[in-house]
Amino acid sequence: MTSDEVFVVDDDASVRRAIERLLHTAGYTVRSFASAYELISVMRTHRPACLVIDVRMPDCTGLELAEMLRGAPAPAPVIFITGHGDIEMAVRAMKAGAVDFLAKPFDDQALLNAIAHAVGSVEH
Amino acid sequence: MTGSALPPRRPRQSVAVPAIAVGACAGYYLASVVGFQLRLPPATTSVLWPPNAVLTAALLLTPPRRWPIILLAVLPVHLVIQLQTEFPLAMILSLFVTNAMEAVVAAGLLYRLSDAPTRIDTLPRLAAFFVAVVIAAPLLSSFADAAAVSLFRGEDYWKVWRTRSLSNMLAELTIVPAAVGTVQLARRWPRDMSPARWAEAGFLAAGLVGIGVLGVRSELLQVRAFSVVSRQTPLALQLPFLLWAAMRFGPTGTGLALVATSVFSAWTVIRGLGPFASTSPTTTVAALTLSLIVVSSTLLSLATLLEERRQAQHALRVRLRFEELLSRLSAALVRLPGDQIAQAFDAWLGRIARVLGVDSLTVFSHNPGGLQAVYSWTDPEAGGPLAAVPVDQERWARRSLAAREPVIILSGSDDPDRGPASTPMLPGVVFPSGGVVPLLGEGDLIGALVFASLADPPAPAALVANAQLVGEVLASALRRKHSEEALRQSEIMKSAILQSLAGGVAVIDRRGVLLQVNDPWRTLAGRNQWMHTPVGGNLIAECWAAFEKGDRIAGEVVAGVTEVLERSQPRFTIEQRTEAAGPPEWWTLTAVPLNRPEGGAVLTRANVTDLRRAELDAQRSREELAHVSRLSTVGEMTASLAHQLNQPLAAIMTNAQAGRRILDSERPDFGEVRAILGDIVDDDRRASDVIQRVRELLRKGQLDMTRINLTAAIRDVADLVASEAIIRNATVSVEFEHEPLFVRGDRVQLQQVVLNLVQNAMDAMVEGNTSVRRIALHCARWKQKQVIITVRDSGPGLPPGTELSIFEPFYTTKKNGMGMGLSIVRSIIEAHGGMIEAANDPGGRGAVFEVVLPAAAGEP
User: Fold this and answer.
1) Which residues of B touch A (CB under 8 A)?
2) Helix, strand, or coil here: B567?
3) Domain range holding A68?
């Protein structure tokens, strides 16, 4: 199990690609998915160091996805990103086990710090 | 109508019987006195016994049922006179019986034999008079009389019979025509005799009386020649006068002359001066009587023949006069215009009445209110103005009008047992005789011609026939007057209606010639010079001339109106907009066929500025409302629009930061930086597109009807609502049967329709807590030259019975809805000439909205 693999789930291809590039510059290995279903099938065999999930997606909301992932034996830390940052969503995200919550557009350092913190907290 | 207020004169008939009774008494008394004077004693019988003849005349002038009155009235007179004699009462009474018997037999028999017992003016009537009055009555009654005289006086039966027969024959022969004729003359008094005629009658009477007096006084007999003539040729001296009377004064004058001659002759004989003086008095009396009878019969016959001829000539003259009148009347009336017919009637009625021989003539017109006397003429000599006959109150007149048959009423006194004697004779009205001729127009009663006279007409049947002929001429004139009046009224009404119309109206014939025009047509003409074509001018030709001078509208008018005139189009309408110094004005010109066999068209011109302005205001309001509605819709979409904008912005920011970090690294990967910059440009364009779409929707513009790509417009809407759908957990699918599909319309407004329908579907599904939220947009060709847009959702569907009411303004089921969305949708669709319907999906769940729009020109 590598500790620097980050999975990114976002239905917007451009956003997905931009996050991939940013995480590459920080040295992370990145796998990105367009939908929750693509991720779930991969999650059966892989466990990333961290998950970056868009809250709103066409087939399944990010919160539902997080609920499903929490049932796993050793759950990976989840960071939510959303275009609709609101208090209600933040509370529900944290309750669903999120380690951080970022509103789009976000500062690069904020995301990198959040990932580093998530990966670190798991290692500790 | 009722009779006028003039006091009616009493009908003649009611005074006739008493008058005749009184006359009979006086005459009987006088005749008896004369009769006694003409007796040749010792004989009881007179040479001339006139009372019986007087009684006969009285009975002839009286209806038979009144005869007992006359006889009873005369009885006291008989007694008074006869009681002065030495006769016993029984004999006096017996003589009355025989006298009365003679009169009754004479009058009764004449009633049986003659068609006009009071007139001796034709040979058959004369013959009846001779048989009944002159021969039968005296001979028969003399049997009884002779019996009485011989019984009471012991005279010789046959001698008495002979003397009485002869004397009574002479009396009946002379006195009855004289008396009856005189009474009838008196009835027409004084109109029938001119002064010259009176003078002539005076000379005649003077001559006869003179000769009689001279004869009695025997002065003439002193002249030998006269004496010889008088003795050898009795009546020779009187003969010229008697012939004069017979030729000039008819049976009546002859009768009077004969009475005078008989009386003087008898008197002469009794004084022993006259002819036959050499013989015995009895023989002399018989001879004189006989010769008087012969002469009287001959002269009466001559008078009758002459009278008959005179009457025939008169009838012919009257006929000719009548026919001349009729032809002149027809000629005069047929040429007259309807409005002069009234004057003509006034002028002609008097002449018609005179020729017809009636005293009064009235024309009644039959109006809805009943019969009304419209023209009337009464002979001024008939006793001044007379009350009109109340035709509709008289039973006989009503019957006549109902049966459409003429009726004539004769006074009952002359003709008591014939004619409608039981019918009241115009009660309370002047005329004892008269009649009515219905005036008909194509079988309908249009009026009545009523005539009336103081005396019965000589030929009632001819009068009716003539009156009918006159009636037909008058009826046709009256009919023409009525129809022309009706036509004029209708023309006036039509013209009034035409002038009262607010719009301009012009009527043209099939060639375009202007027939009629109202004033508004001229005032609404504006700068269209061809609309000032005068009546009688050719409107189409003027219009064509205007077109050739460059008036494009005039050209269209010519083409359109021509099509209407040729009946190839049922209607032509053109609208014209003018902007001459002031706010714009709109006009319409409409042509429809003139509904008549000769063809033609009616053109109407109207100022529709108010209408158009109102339409424009309404359209502007609709646009405002649609705009406000779009603002509101977009406002509701703020969250999803923010999300749509946020995505590319987030990608741009992250890409930019990633790029900076790459450049900050020791070995920057420029290929990656280039890719980053490419993505940034794309995302920027993506954001710009969203903004562009929103701006278009929010654009406040006038209705811009162009050919638009409907499928592309719908796809844009689908893109716009995509993020909204994601937020609300719904999917929006788009399926087009054919791409692209074009319609003519306003792109923004049609997008608003689709957007509103999609929003509505999403609201319905969210409010209905639908778990699977699907919206399917479908677009296809529909029937001929139409396009259908279908918006189908998987929501709870429409509440039953609300398929129509949901399009009403302010209809809403939402907590915060205004209820304007679907109402605006419908007004937009209708402004595009389309229609919208809502229903629940019969095969499944959810509502279906169908919008049908006309396809753009050129579309298959």
Assistant:
1) 639, 642-643, 646-655, 657-659, 661-662, 665, 672, 676, 679, 682-683, 686, 726-727, 731
2) coil
3) 1-82
